[in-house]
């Protein structure tokens, strides 16, 4: 087992590459960590921050996780760590939030050899915010590391991407997810033994995300997952060519609510359409939404294979527009009309 980031699961080659760069003092001052929701982006970012300030470098695991500096970084209490998060009341990270960071970046670290800035949901920065950050990335202050976390890389300006080293988070296979989940969670081990069908549903619904799987183990998370799947299935059942506009509109409105919840529902539908497309091309494809090939094939018969690509593109576009604060009601009405016209 590698000595680098031993508490993390998966992504072994990425962990080794980052660990060696930190050991040699050659870690780039800007990292862009990309991956699906729940793929461990923030956990990796905190671990990199801990490794940078670890007081036991070269003496075993990196980060050691036991020295005062590591503990402070991992608990987010270190004075030289800043985590920028989107205001939950807003859909984007604005330019003012980035500008507020800049003066402090040019000050010396307080207690560590460097300062670390983690920007969560960097893909939700406005273009103005990204350009404000670009000024820093072009000439980064000494002893400052900036770690950007993003789910959708296409929303990150090319100029930003060219100045940050890209670190992709890999999706876990079903077997890897099973191994890691049972190793991390007592609840997972118990469910695997006593309720294997429910446990299997969690592995499927997690979509290769360890964070998502851990959330689904809780009663609340499992209930939310069932609601998401039921809502997504109601829409999928209405996607057949024979459905009326009223049926489509009603099904789409049934999943609307809070913007974040609707975003998750649309992600489920996108995964379902992806499953159907994959199975149409080859049997035995790994599924992200459906519990079985039989269930996926039944949905495929209802929807129709020739319409899949256009439907997939429509839901991707809707998801993108939703992230840009488009009005939910108008967005879903337009989507229903476009689906009807396919």
The count of DSSP E runs of length 2 or more, i.e. the number of strands, is 5
Instruction: Average the pLDDT over all residues and give the rounded result.
Output: 89
- Helix-strand pattern: HEHHEHEHEHEHHHHHHHHHH
Helical residue percent? 40-55%
What is the first-to-last residue Cα distance? 52 Å
How large, in whole angstroms, is the Cα Rg? 22 Å
Shape: globular
Model description:
This protein is an alpha/beta fold and 342 residues long. It folds into two domains: 12-168, Rossmann fold, CATH 3.40.50; 218-340, no CATH class. It contains 16 helices and five strands. It has helices at residues 12-23, 41-53, 68-74, 95-105, 127-138, 158-161, 174-184, 186-194, 196-205, 210-216, 219-237, 245-254, 259-281, 293-303, 308-323, 328-340; strands at residues 30-34, 81-84, 115-119, 144-150, 165-168. Strands 2-3-4-1-5 form a five-stranded parallel sheet, covered by helices on one side. The mean pLDDT is 89.
Give a quick rundown of the structure:
The protein has 16 helices and 5 strands.
Essential attributes:
2 domains, Rossmann fold, globular, alpha/beta, 16 helices, 342 residues
List the helices and strands and how they pair.
Blueprint: H1 12-23, E1 30-34, H2 41-53, H3 68-74, E2 81-84, H4 95-105, E3 115-119, H5 127-138, E4 144-150, H6 158-161, E5 165-168, H7 174-184, H8 186-194, H9 196-205, H10 210-216, H11 219-237, H12 245-254, H13 259-281, H14 293-303, H15 308-323, H16 328-340
Parallel strand pairs: 1-4, 1-5, 2-3, 3-4
Helix pairs in contact: 2-3, 4-5, 7-8, 8-9, 11-13, 12-16, 13-14, 13-15, 15-16
């Amino acid at each position: 087992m590698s000595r680098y980031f031993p508490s993390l699961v998966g992504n072994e080659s990425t962990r080794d590459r980052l660990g060696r760069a930190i050991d040699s003092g050659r870690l780039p001052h800007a990292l862009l960590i990309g991956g699906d929701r729940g793929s461990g982006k923030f956990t990796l970012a905190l671990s990199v921050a801990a490794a940078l300030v670890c007081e036991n470098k070269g003496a075993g695991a990196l980060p050691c996780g036991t020295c005062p500096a590591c503990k402070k970084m991992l608990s987010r209490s270190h004075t030289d760590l800043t985590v920028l998060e989107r205001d939950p009341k807003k859909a984007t990270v604005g330019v003012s939030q980035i500008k507020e960071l800049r003066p402090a970046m040019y000050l010396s670290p307080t207690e560590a050899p460097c300062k670390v800035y983690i920007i969560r949901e960097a893909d939700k920065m406005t273009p103005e915010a990204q350009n404000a950050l670009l000024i820093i990335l072009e000439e980064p202050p000494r002893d400052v590391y900036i770690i950007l976390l993003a789910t959708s890389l296409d929303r990150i300006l090319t100029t930003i991407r060219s100045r940050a080293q890209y670190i992709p988070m890999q999706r876990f296979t079903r077997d890897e997810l099973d191994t890691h989940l049972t190793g991390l969670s007592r609840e997972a081990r118990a469910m695997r033994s006593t309720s294997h069908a429910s446990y299997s549903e969690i592995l499927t619904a997690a979509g290769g995300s360890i964070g998502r799987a851990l959330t689904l183990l809780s009663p609340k998370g499992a209930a939310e997952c069932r609601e998401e799947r039921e809502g997504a299935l109601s829409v999928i059942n209405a996607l057949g060519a024979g459905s009326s506009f009223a049926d489509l509109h009603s099904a789409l409105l049934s999943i609307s609510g809070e913007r974040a919840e609707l975003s998750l529902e649309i992600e489920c539908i996108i995964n379902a359409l992806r499953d159907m497309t994959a199975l149409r091309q080859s049997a035995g494809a790994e599924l992200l939404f459906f519990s079985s090939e039989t269930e996926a094939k039944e949905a495929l018969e209802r929807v129709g294979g020739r319409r899949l690509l256009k439907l997939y593109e429509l839901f991707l576009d809707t998801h993108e527009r939703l992230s840009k604060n488009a009005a939910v009601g108008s967005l879903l009405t337009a989507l229903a009309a476009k689906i009807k016209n396919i």
